[in-house]
């Protein structure tokens, strides 16, 4: 069964997913409906850039679509769910990408509904997202699979238990920011050694992209791949030693733990 799709929210994450869906050809622009809570200029921008169906009344979104992606901040989600409850039917499948708001909390505000928590990241724009999919018990397996296909269209998606979503946020949802910092630091080091800034970013970004694809496509353990490029008394082992002396791996682990902890704390606050 193919669902009509609507976005409640038109911010950066919604735009990334819309761009991914359109670039992949999974949905056509006239098949995507978008409603934005309060801020009209953002909705206008999305309508002009992506030529999707921008609508001004939230009621219309629920009348015209049966798969609704809530791409809003956690505080906004908990505010709007009681308001839209009157528009919901048993046919609606609700997908939340808001960090820190559990399925239990969503259901408490909407009543019994088919609910999926999803955690994509912004590389959806270039069809390279990594997304987790966590359905509640009311979602049939075929609908879960359809949602996986939707999210696969702009990257890769995997069904996981909601119990591990804090870890997903730390290792994937927030991770693009860590990688951007890493690329920037790599480029700064290269500039310090005399490479032009534009060249430094190009070399650093491609090195990170290539290394990531080696892990994803070879199936080898990252440690094994690291060993393959660390020759005795070579340049790479000298760099690895410097990173280890400065707690590189421990600091990255702490970053993942900090993001996971924050997501868990947010679920208590909402």
Automatic annotation (TrEMBL):
Enzyme class, broadest EC rank: oxidoreductase
Gene3D superfamilies, per database record: NAD(P)-binding Rossmann-like Domain, ProC C-terminal domain-like
Chief location: cytoplasm
Ranges of residues in domain Pyrroline-5-carboxylate reductase dimerisation: 162-266
E.C. numbers: 1.5.1.2
Catalytic activity: L-proline + NAD(+) = (S)-1-pyrroline-5-carboxylate + NADH + 2 H(+); L-proline + NADP(+) = (S)-1-pyrroline-5-carboxylate + NADPH + 2 H(+)
Domain Pyrroline-5-carboxylate reductase catalytic N-terminal: 4-100
Job of this protein: Catalyzes the reduction of 1-pyrroline-5-carboxylate (PCA) to L-proline.
Record pathway: Amino-acid biosynthesis; L-proline biosynthesis; L-proline from L-glutamate 5-semialdehyde: step 1/1
Keywords carried by this UniProt record: Amino-acid biosynthesis, Cytoplasm, NADP, Oxidoreductase, Proline biosynthesis
Subcellular location(s) per record: Cytoplasm
UniProt gene name: proC
NCBIfam families linked to this entry: proC
Name of the protein: Pyrroline-5-carboxylate reductase
Family the UniProt entry places it in: Belongs to the pyrroline-5-carboxylate reductase family.
């Amino acid at each position: 069964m193919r669902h009509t799709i609507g976005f409640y929210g038109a911010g950066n994450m919604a735009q990334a997913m819309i761009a991914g869906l359109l670039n992949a050809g999974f949905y056509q622009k006239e098949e995507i409906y978008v409603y934005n809570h309060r801020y009209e200029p953002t909705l206008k921008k999305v309508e002009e850039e992506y030529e999707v169906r921008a609508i001004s009344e939230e009621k219309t979104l629920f009348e015209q679509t049966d798969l609704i992606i809530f791409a809003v901040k956690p505080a906004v989600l908990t505010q709007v769910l009681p308001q839209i409850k009157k528009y919901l039917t048993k046919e609606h499948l609700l997908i939340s990408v808001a960090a820190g708001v559990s399925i239990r909390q969503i259901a408490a505000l909407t009543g019994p509904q088919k609910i999926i928590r999803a955690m994509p990241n912004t590389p959806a724009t270039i069809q390279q997202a990594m997304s987790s999919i966590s359905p509640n018990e009311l979602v049939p397996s075929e609908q879960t699979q359809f949602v996986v296909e939707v999210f696969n269209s702009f990257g890769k998606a995997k069904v996981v238990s909601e119990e591990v979503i804090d870890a997903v946020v730390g290792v994937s949802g927030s991770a693009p920011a860590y990688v951007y910092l890493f690329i920037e630091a790599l480029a700064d080091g290269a500039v310090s050694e005399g490479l032009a800034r534009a060249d430094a970013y190009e070399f650093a970004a491609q090195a990170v992209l290539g290394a990531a694809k080696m892990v994803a496509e070879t199936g080898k353990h990252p440690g094994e791949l690291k060993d393959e490029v660390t020759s005795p008394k070579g340049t790479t082992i000298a760099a690895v030693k410097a990173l280890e002396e400065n707690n590189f791996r421990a600091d990255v682990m702490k970053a993942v733990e900090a993001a996971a902890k924050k997501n868990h704390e947010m679920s208590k606050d909402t």
